[in-house]
Specification:
Elements lengths: L7 H6 L7 H13 L5 H14 L4 E5 L5 H9 L6 E6 L2 H14 L5 E5 L2 H6 L5 E6 L6 H11 E9 L8 H9 L3 E9 L7 E9 L5
Parallel strand pairs: 1-2, 1-4, 2-3, 4-5
Antiparallel strand pairs: 5-7, 6-7
Helix pairs in contact: 3-4, 7-8
Amino acid sequence: MGKMIEDLEGYFKSFSPRGDDLLAELQEEAEKENIPIVGPVMGQLLSIMAGVTGARRILELGTANGYSAIWFAKGCAVAGGKVVSLESDPEMAKRARKNFQRAGVADRVEVREGDAMTEMVAMKGLFDLIFLDIDKQSYAKVLGECERLLEPGGLLIADNTAFNDAKEFNAAIWESDKWEAVNLLTFLPHHSENYDGLCFAKRVLQHM
């Protein structure tokens, strides 16, 4: 094997996608106001995952200013997909809706206000992809609803799994026979935090 690239952080940071002008603006806004967002590297990854999985129904837990939902909406556009995003803060939900209008994706993103668990329990129908990005201590609590609402073979992505409050979730999904999961320690420039964990899990097909 050859030598590793020097200054790996600087090298890979140079490949961070900018997104369009609105996404760049929302990123700057989030950094100034300390709004936790996924950042451009994770955003592009979410868009790619939505596209390659052909997701037509995406559930996002945690809207914030709408940054990640815009990436999702762009990624699932070819498949005619739509995003349902849950947000507990009414002011943030209002703000996100304005950003969806500005991004031209308002017809593909629905924001529902309320507690994530309460909203999920009331939901019917299945999703192809679920993105988990709410308070980390709630991850384990909503895992059962994620299982119920995700198509067998569907994809669950959980952000921020390197936080202490995500430990219960990490153990639960790792030990469950309902999921095939991998948890990655990652470097994500402009993400909150730059070094963090990402969990990718496939809902195991039910055996007859």
